[in-house]
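call fold(seq) -> tokens
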Amino acid sequence: MFNIQEELKNVPDNPGVYQMKNEFGEIIYVGKAKNLKKRVRQYFQSKNHSGKIKAMIRNIAEFEYIITDNEVEALILEANYIKKYKPKYNTLLRDDKQYPYIKISVQEKYPRIYKVREVKKDGAKYYGPYISNYAVNEIIDIIGSLYKLRKCSLKLDGSRKNKRPCLNYHINRCTAPCMGNVDYEEYREEVNKAINFLSGKEEEIIESLKEKMILASENLDYEMAAKYRDQIKALELITEKQKIVSTTSIIDQDVIGSAIGIEEACIQIFFIRNGKIIGREHYLLTNIENETRQEIISSFLTQFYTGTVYVPKEVYIETEIDDIELFEKALSEKRGNKVSVKVPSKGEKSMLIKMIKKNALEILEKGSQRIKRNLDESMHAVENLKDLLQLEEIPARIEAYDISNIQGVESVGSMVVFEKGIPSKSNYRRFKIKTVKGPDDYKSMEEVLERRINRGLSINQDMNGFNKMPDLILVDGGKGQVGIAESVIKNFGIKIPICGMIKDDKHTTKGLIYNGQEIELKKTDIVYRLIYRIQEEAHRFAIEYHRNLRDKTLFKSELDNIENIGEKRKINLLRKFGSVENIKTKSIDELVNAPGMNKRAAESVFNYFNK
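ret:
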């Protein structure tokens, strides 16, 4: 049994990351701390918390922490955990995009040009990020036609030649350095032209192309003149899209503005490269209840810049935040040189932030309108469901249950909650089946409902999502599951209407069973859409939990019982020899040759299997 007060005594004073877990072992909150002892203790000793944090604290069954060498490491680790586990009580960045870049491999003898989504310290030149794949492909195509740089992945050092060139050579998009058809100095000159173009010197290139177009026209080479004309138009189209925002600076910058709503926040970011806006993107953050603007922007910076592959020289934000020096240090380490996080009070960046905030507010308002429409439609569906079942009251709180197992292994139950027709994910609950052996969905459903009602009727009223009884219970299945649920409810002496959600031969929602009668629903009916969503959500939630439990036990083997054999050595042994049966036949000399093994570990394995 995890004793929180006793464990708090053992928390160190070091910087690090802490994880709060619920009774199911799920991570519900992740945070970083300069001093773990002080920070973690605050949750259990202070009473001045926001409503969201208070709800989180009520759900804490245990906690873990990881010590780091410094705050920067803690910041990065915190962001990685938030992205990996998506804890219920953390402010979450909904999107996680990897933008495309254009790469020119100048470290190779004959550089090539291609699209990538990761910036590496390999000596190559990277340009971007670009918002759309289309823009990247378009630019690479133009550069291919202008400078005929290769796109292939061949290793060309000049020592060997191909027997025949590829298609790009035949369509005049490559000079085929693989064949030795082009002089090295000439090829590098074309590479430098491509670099100049991508570095923002496209005006010079356009002027050069205009001169060539005029010369070709004067020489009556109209086909070539038309080709130059088309290239000029393509270049002008790209440069036209890149709005000038700074005539004094060509430093890469990101400018960030926000709009804060009741349930969501919208962050909009403009990407400025070489003094030009090359694109913009917006992100929605959820779980922002009682969060300040500073905290929301801080959460965004943490999650966005630890996930993106590129960090600009300067980041502009609208308001001061805590730990701004820490962010600058973390971003500088990622970029490899100094990064500044600034709050402009006047000038062009301040005006740009005002414009970005206005855009973010518009996006947020549109989202709010969409949410309102969804709420109205969902409530209308609930009202129709009341009429369909002839219930006395509108079922404002609907709970749906599903059981998941594979041949009785790791049986689990799920409870999803819809309030006024909208998923209330904070009230979802999972049940690991404790009393049922083997694949018995009826008994499993019985156990789940008994545990749920018991918690709801308990004297403690634990306020853990169970204190409020449902107005309607939906179970995944037919008359058998409904009968089990009805008997459980009857035994407790309470009245809650119960429906079964049935599926057709194609395993798609078909209708309901209520009071022993089957009610078929039309797919065009608003009630059908509600029941379909509930049934799918209950099934997804059960499957997800079952998969998590199964994954934890799936990779167990006899190797787990052997001294000096951890997870990495176990994996390496299985990769090397294929199976435990094969490992049993190996000598110490053979075992020691597996990656990560030493003589002591090899002897442990040999002695275990050979007693």
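Confidence is low (pLDDT under 50) at residues 241-248.
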